Amino acid sequence: MSRSQRLLDLLQVLRQHRLPVSGSTLAEEMNISLRTLYRDIATLRSHGANIEGEAGMGYILAPGFMLPPLMFSEDEISALVLGSRWVSDRADMPLAKAARNALAKVTAVLPDDLKERAETNDLVIGPSFADAMRVENSEHMEVIRKAIRNEHIMQINYTDAYDNVSSRVIWPIMLTYFEHSRVIVAWCEARKAYRHFRTDRVSSLEDTGKRYYPRKPVLVKQWRMQEGLEE
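The structure corresponding to this sequence follows.
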């Protein structure tokens, strides 16, 4: 176990105790020596953890302390790296760049042992069979993501699987990333129902700036129920 992982585990153990707990009990739960425990508590305190108590009296983590956002376990680091690399390899250019920047920021401030874990991650993304998706309408994708975040109504021109072209007013609630396509999940005003629109079939689009109602969480819940998906 890395030292960073051990410190994280110690914080979690302290959280489980509502009353002061002796150092020997903590050391036994952590399967470490008492000397190592005292050293780890001193380290956590130096990083801002409000651990009250002292040797012979017991220790307790004061309420309200939040884990530092970069105290990740090794598996969490692996998940972050794998996810960031997937987005970097599969998403449109702006989102891919954002993923690379985010991973670089996280890696830069990790403790040395976790930084090495992130930089030598053994989980990799295989080659994509849809490289064209990376450059597909990057500007469109940005507009779509922004409209979804802001809960804005969109006007789109869409070509269906039978080459029929139509103008639609939609309420976008979700953007789904598949290996070979990107799909907007939206309420369609023309059909009065939820519909799925492939982004590569959207020839033009406009964010109207008008907010739809009900709010997105309500619409997402309705869509999930329609699709028979679990919450």
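Residues 90 and 128 are 7 Å apart (CA to CA).
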